[in-house]
């Protein structure tokens, strides 16, 4: 089974009236051209936290020092499990976001997250994750590979559960 990760770095905003999340505009691979958190596929023998830390370093140059698990999302394509995505938040990191071949990073105020330029399922679970909640979700897509060209058709969500 394909395991993947997403990592959402958070900071207090410059104006101190809210919070920002670091999103990337993805430059290649699944979801190219859309906004997302840094993340990617787990390598053989790698745990999800190790993957989230490595992908965040490779994609945007931040060194994450602690993670909080925020969710576990199962994506189904035509009835079969396509991937399970482990979602993390972090406020513990060093460095400044830097663009890479894979990702263009951008601090965005939480109320301005561009859900119209993200995966169709994200508006259902990401707002709660950015508020500090935990979520377990299942999202069904239909139409064949690749997943980012399939149609999002249904979902189930459970909030504030152990992840
Ligand atoms: C279906 O809904 C999804 N929503 C969100 N927000 N993110 C998703 C969704 N489906 C997949 N993803 C994320 C999970 C991973 O972070 C990436 C996987 O992308 P990719 O296959 O390009 O993985 P990489 O390891 O970065 O690719 P390389 O093999 O090029 O290193 O998408």
UniProtKB/TrEMBL annotation:
Q: Which CDD domains does its entry note? A: NUDIX_MTH1_Nudt1
Q: What is its main location?
A: cytoplasm
Q: Subcellular location, in the record's words?
A: Cytoplasm
Cellular component, GO annotation: cytoplasm
The Nudix hydrolase domain is annotated at 1-131
Q: What class of enzyme is it?
A: hydrolase
Report which superkingdom the organism of origin falls in: Archaea
GO function terms (MF aspect): 8-oxo-7,8-dihydroguanosine triphosphate pyrophosphatase activity; dATP diphosphatase activity; metal ion binding; RNA binding
InterPro entries for this protein: 8ODP, Nudix_hydrolase, NUDIX_hydrolase-like_dom_sf, NUDIX_hydrolase_CS, NUDIX_hydrolase_dom
Q: Which GO terms describe its biological process?
A: DNA protection
List, alphabetically, the Pfam families matched. Answer: NUDIX (PF00293)
Q: Which reaction does it catalyse?
A: 2-oxo-dATP + H2O = 2-oxo-dAMP + diphosphate + H(+); O(6)-methyl-dGTP + H2O = O(6)-methyl-dGMP + diphosphate + H(+); 2-oxo-ATP + H2O = 2-oxo-AMP + diphosphate + H(+); 8-oxo-dGTP + H2O = 8-oxo-dGMP + diphosphate + H(+)
Q: Which UniProt keywords apply?
A: Cytoplasm, Hydrolase, Magnesium, Metal-binding, RNA-binding
Q: Which cofactor does it need?
A: Mg(2+)
Self-association and partners: Monomer.
Protein name, per record = Oxidized purine nucleoside triphosphate hydrolase
